[in-house]
Amino acid sequence: MVDVSRMAELLSALGIQLKREGEVLEVNARHIAQSRAPYELVSQMRASFFVIGPLLARLGEARVPLPGGCAIGARPVDLHVRGLQSLGAEVQFEHGTVYAYVPGNKRRLQGAKIYLDVPSVGATETLMMAATLAEGETILENAAQEPEVVDLANFCRAMGAQIQGAGTNRIVITGVDSLHSVEYSIIPDRIEAGTFLVAGAMTHSEISLFPVVPAHLTPVIAKLKAIGVNVAIDGANTVRLIPSRTLSATDLKTLPYPGFPTDMQAQFMALLTLCEGNSVITETLFENRLRHVAELNRMGADIRVNGNIAIVQGVSKLSGAPVLATDLRASAALVVAALAADGMTSIQGLHHLDRGYDNLDGKLKGLGANLQRVREDSAESLPSSPAAVPPVVAS
After folding, report:
1. Residue 121, Cα to own-chain centre: how many angstroms?
2. Is 361 a domain residue?
3. Computed from CA positions of residues 296, 298, 304, 307, in that sequence, does the dihedral angle turn out positive or negative?
4. Is-catalytic flag, 70?
5. In terms of residue numbers, what domain contains 352?
6. What is the DSSP string of 103-137?
7. Do 162 and 216 belong together in one domain?
8. Looking at the domain assignment, is residue 310 inside a domain?
9. Which residue among the candidates 11, 70, 116, 274 is catalytic per the annotation?
10. What is the 8-class DSSP label of residue 186?
11. Which of 54, 128, 203, 378 is the most exposed place for a label (fewest CB within 10 A)?
């Protein structure tokens, strides 16, 4: 995915040596050449801001521009900053850049007790990484509990960090002098898996997913069952969607893990457009994460928005139409909607999709989907007859 490549570019710009072969990324961070992250890279992806914690812990200072990424709402870094200050860092804002440094001669962060106002994944991960090399004990209260936080903690532990409580709202980190190299396999992407489950439900297709961690999909599976779709656990790392021809409406509210993930809200909204009855979706985490409603309505959906609440009246079918992806998960929602729609759908803005999915269109083709990528300047020449061309996803 593009975000991985961008993060690799950022690390390379800091002087870290990287080598990629297929799905294996080799990172040599023995020597970090500088503590300043380039604006042109950080501005494209919010997660790139997270280098501020490791840089501060390793070098005693970091200069990182305020982050960019999907325009889904305000995502301030105040929790990151206050947490770093609690660890003993001085933090200044200079022309859109956060400059953090450890004052004095010791150049080492100090353990502290930190309470997060909200269980932010980014702040939890940033502060956990910074605290691994801090002197003394750090306690993160009201920490995020997402599987990705647990996986990062496991990765750090494999390198010699002392971290306890990851996966709960209280994480305890005892700082160590240094970390060592390790070989590590990351967890499967639960949002990608959830997207495929929604695609199967919308097209009434039985599909098996492997490898996945079924427990990470619990809230998504629960909602699928609520609308009449069954998901079987066929093994420790395999799930199988058993489709249903009759789908019923349900309500959902996005919440921090283990609640329903905000990153599945758009895809599930697409699915609810084809469910009988009224569904109510409440987005509690990001104020601008309902912009895909207009595009789904363009395809024949019946969705009304009131603030952070979307009311979905199920329709008998969706129809192909030209639509625009507004962010990463909205693009996935439009793709799965296009698979179930009558006629051809042309989707622009697929750069959002490529940020967070690895060859999603190729994988869908492997499942039998009829779609293709075309250049934007050639999209107008595609046939418009529903009988001539099944749903087409075009960039």
Report:
1. 10
2. yes
3. positive
4. yes
5. 190-381
6. -SSS---B--EEE-SS--HHHHHHHHHHHTTSBSE
7. no
8. yes
9. 70
10. P
11. 378
Instruction: Provide the residue-wise pLDDT of the chain in tens; the chain has 395 residues.
Output: 788 999 999 999 999 999 999 999 999 999 998 999 999 888 888 788 999 999 999 999 999 998 764 443 344 789 999 999 999 999 998 888 999 999 988 779 999 999 999 999 999 999 999 999 999 999 999 999 999 999 999 999 999 999 999 999 999 999 999 999 999 999 999 999 999 999 999 999 999 999 999 999 999 999 999 999 999 999 999 999 999 989 999 999 999 999 999 999 999 999 999 999 999 999 998 777 798 999 999 999 999 999 999 999 999 999 999 999 999 899 999 999 999 999 999 999 888 899 889 999 999 999 999 999 887 665 554 444 333 333 444 33
Verify that 293 and 239 share a domain, yes or no.
Answer: yes
Non-local CB neighbours of 353 within 8 Å, separated by 6+ positions: 325, 328, 331, 332, 335, 360
Tokens of 85: 């200050």
Residues 138 and 223 in one domain: no
Structure tokens belonging to residue 10: 């950022």
Q: At what angle do helices 190-202 and 328-340 cross, to 10 degrees?
A: 20
Token pair for residue 28? 């040599």
Within a domain: 224: yes
- Residue 327 is encoded by which pair of tokens? 């962010």
How would DSSP label each residue in 243-280? --S--B---EEB-STTSB-GGGHHHHHHHHTTSBSEEE
- Our count of domains for the chain comes to 2
The position carrying tokens 């647990």 is: 150
Q: Find where tokens 């770093």 sit.
A: 84
Q: What is the 3-state secondary structure (H, E, C) of 41-82?
A: HHCCCHHHHHHHHHHHHHHCEEEEECCCCCCCCCCCCHHHHH
- Asked if 246 and 291 sit in the same domain, the reply is yes
**CATH value at residue 267:** 3.65.10.10
Q: Which amino acid is at 12?
A: S
Question: CB–CB of 213/242 below 8 Å?
Answer: no
Structure tokens at 75: 């995502």
For every residue of 72-110, which 3-state class applies, written as one string? CCCCCCHHHHHHHHHCCCEEEEECCEEEEECCCCCCCCE
